Amino acid sequence: MKTTGTNCKEALDRWEKATEQKMDEAEVVKLIAQSPPIDKMDDSLIKLKNCRVLSLSSNCIVNMSVALTLSITVILMIGNLEILSLARNQIKRIQGLDEVGATLKELWLSYNQIEKLEGLQSCVKLANLYIGHNKIKNLDEVAKLSQL
Fold first, then answer.
1. Which of 4, 54, 66, 110 has the CA that lies 20 to 30 A from 95?
2. Among 19, 20, 66, which residue's Cα sits nearest to residue 39?
3. 3-class SS at 9?
4. Distances from the Cα of 111 to the Cα of 52, 96, 145, angstroms
């Protein structure tokens, strides 16, 4: 029997109750290893008006383009996001970072299924990229980082 995953709205509601913080005031939001894992992103992230650090690590996010394009675009309306952690998910391709490039300083993508280092060119302030334990086999991919 397949377990239904958690969406961001449900995870945020649980986070708010557990931490006794208000979503619209929080600067750091960690939705790590939700049970059941987050598998759907939604526009509830717009409530994170002051969020600088967002961690969605150790969940079951598969498609970064859908996940990030929707959610990060929503967060970037706020314009504060500096650290994004999507490590330990099932992401295969880096996408959807165009909107966050102006503010993102750290990106955690370790332990995913990524094969190519594409989609980072807009991250002009990126100082730390954690990309270990992926499926990058060609060293030419590492050369792409010199363009950042």
1. 4
2. 66
3. helix
4. 23, 19, 18
How far is 47 from 75, CA to CA, in rounded Å?
A: 8
Residue 48: name the closest of 28, 70, 19 by CA.
28
The first and second tokens of residue 17, run together, are 């109750």
Range 126-136 average pLDDT: 95
pTM: 0.84
Task: Tell me which DSSP letter residue 45 carries.
Answer: G
- Cβ-contact 52, 28 below 8 angstroms: yes
92 by Cβ neighbours in 10 Å (0-12 / 13-18 / 19+) ranks as: middle
pLDDT in tens, 67-89: 555 555 555 555 688 999 999 99
